[in-house]
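Shipment paperwork, digital attachment
Item: protein structure file
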Amino acid sequence: MPRKRKLLAQLSALQSNSGFPPFDALENLNATPEGDSSPKSSKYFAIEKKNSSQLEADFFNQPCISLAKSFLGQILVRKLPDGRELWGRIVETEAYLGGEDEASHSKGGKQTQRNAAMFMKPGTLYVYQIYGIYFCVNVSSQGEGAAVLLRSLEPLRGLDVMRELRSASRKGPTKLLKDWQLCNGPSKLCQAFGIDKAFDQRDLTQDAAIWMVPGHDLPGEQDVVATTRIGIGSRGEWAQKPLRFYLRGNRFVSVVDKKREREMAAMGHFSCS
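Attachment content:
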């Protein structure tokens, strides 16, 4: 198959007195039921690239919360049409559990042309637009209509190119962005990595322009903060569930929850810093 027109120009128990339900209870909400659910694979972007070190299908085939935590420390790689590569370490994610999750685009099991990627096989990219301008990138997981939002990255390679791409997306005179400002938000990381709607429904295990590789120093449970998701205040009880995960002490995280960090320290999850 041709290179697709040059590649289309290319969430342990935290409950204990915290009011949050345990992780495993939440994961059970999203576990794939027994039997063959036969998720659809994207029909787009079948690939000739095969990176031997990349994360394979088995990695993505996890319940949503488990995948959201497993992403922390892994590396997203984006290969530009000119061959340059952009690398970023995932430091913040959010889990969207599908059907009963009032904050999910697939709540109630509703499947549309827009959210179709959420129902495809684990590892499929779901890219959507907000405010008619910006993009956010998610990765499908186990569970009908479940996906993980990639919220922040720590830039590792190609930072100057990321600055160029971010600047090109900003209007008027702009100040030079600092390293921590490049990918500290879901739309910012999409700008910095050149990810737009053309990446919707692509398969991270097969695509030639975007994939993931294993991180080297993966965090332990004591390094991960679990707190509420951003921007879903009107979603009732779902707005209070600890479905956002980030690396404690990492300056590239978009929003730090100091109150939650103190609560977790008091419960013995980690020491106060």
